[in-house]
Input
Amino acid sequence: MKLLLLGIIVVATAVGEVLAAMGMRRHGEIRDFRPGALGRAASVLTRNRFVIGYVAAMAVSFFAFMRLLTISNLSYAVPVTAVTYALETLMAKYVLKEHVNWLRWAGAALVIGGVALVSL
Output
């Protein structure tokens, strides 16, 4: 059950983060932080299908994480969910077509190594 929940958390979080990036790229930069302008931006973003997908994916991740916490220790649950960073790096490269330099790959590899140590 732990591995199933972990898989759900990792996939939902990574997909959610990619959807957020896609949605914000379509929306464009938010430059005006006055209350009225933020309200208009929020109104537009609530109709952005990528942002809606992001919210849904993160809700799935949140509830799976809450369930994981009922059956495992926090000292296990939080570190192992860090594997999302590696999956997000892969998705940034292949889905978002971002340039990922060797330092970022090395960082992702270090995260995987840390997750392996914690999960032992």
In short: Residues 10 and 81 are 6 Å apart (CA to CA).
